[in-house]
Amino acid sequence: MAKRVFTIGYEGADVDRFLMALKDAGVETLADVRAVALSRKRGFSKSALRDALAGQDIGYRHFRELGTPKEGRQAARAGDSALMRRIYCEEVLTSAPAQDAFRELAVLAGDQPICLLCFERDPENCHRRVLAQRLAEQGWEIVDLTVL
Question: What InterPro entries does the record tag this protein with (predicted)?
Fold first, then answer.
């Protein structure tokens, strides 16, 4: 069986359905790849989310170094995914802290089923797609989860 990495965005989701999607997929650890793990959406800020995940026996790791900087988030919100990707790949992924964090993420993915978390519902408009593609190049199958 191929190694799998899941991705998920919580845009438009409620916490209960979100947790159910993770549980149904067999995710053991949620890898939060947001630069800022705060959310205006109830239940998706770091502490509340970590507590809700713990109640489902799902771990939580925040990979802040793999988050998108403010300019990249603004580009994504404006629908300019090409600019977001350029900023992310050129300004974030070239940094030593991000490269170290990516190696940690890959090790974690090798140990257990993980899911990359960010806000955007559509992974094509999110930096988690860039991370997922890099993991796919290392042999992982990528599965995008959708919260209905």
Answer: DUF488, UCP024492
Q: Taking the mean position of all CA atoms in its chain, how far away is CA 4?
A: 14
87: left (phi over 0), alpha (psi -120 to 50) or beta: alpha
For residues 53 and 26, give the distance between their C-alpha atoms in angstroms, rounded to a whole number.
Answer: 13
Instruction: Give the whole-angstrom CA distance, residue 100 versus residue 119.
Output: 23
Judge contact between 148 and 11, C-beta under 8 A: no
User: What does the pLDDT look like over 54-109, one tens digit per residue?
Assistant: 999 999 999 999 999 999 999 988 989 999 999 999 999 999 999 999 999 999 99
